Amino acid sequence: MSGRNRAQQKRPARHLPQKDQAPSHITLNAQQNNQNNIEINASGLPKWQELAGYESVVPGAGDRILLMSEHQGEHRRGLETKVIGGDNIRAYLGMMIGGALQAGVIWGAVHLGDGGHDRSAIALATGSSVTGLSTIWSN
User: Which of 37, 86, 117, 139 could in theory staple to 112 by disulfide, Cβ–Cβ 3.0 to 4.6 A?
Assistant: First the structure.
C-alpha cells in the first residue's frame, strides 16, 4: 500500500458544518484506550519518587517537606483535642443545667401540692418528667 492509501484508511471522513450550520455528524479520529490509570494520594506526603525528585532539585527539600508534614499533623491533633474537650464540657454542662432545672420544677410541684394545688402539682410534675425523659432519650 502506498502512504496515501494508508492515511485514508486510518482517518474516517469528517463532515464539517458550514459557518452558520450545526454539525449533523462528526467523526473523530481517536484511539480508544481501555486502560485507565488514576492515582490518588490521600496522604499529606508525596510519593518517595517525587520526594527524591524534589531533593535532587533543591538539596534539603525532602527533609523540609517531612518536617512540614509532621508540624501539620501535630497542629491537626491539637485542634482535635480541643474540639473533643469542648464537646465533653458542653455535654456535662448541659446535663448539669438540665438536671438543676428538672430539680427546680419538681421542687415547685412539691410546694404546689403542699399548698393545696394538687392538680397543678400533678400537671407540672408529669409535664416536666415527660419533657426531661424525652430530652434524655432524644440524644
Answer: 117
Q: Name the grid cell of 130.
A: 415527660
- pTM score of the predicted model: 0.48
Amino acid at 14: R
Counting Cβ atoms within 10 Å, is residue 1 exposed (0-12), middle (13-18) or buried (19+)?
Answer: exposed
Q: How far is CA 106 from the centre of its chain?
A: 43
Cell of 123: 400537671
**2-26: per-residue pLDDT in tens?**
555 554 555 555 554 555 554 555 5
Q: Hey, what's the cell of 89?
A: 464540657
> Residue 69 to residues 45, 107, 127: CA-CA distances in angstroms?
7, 57, 55
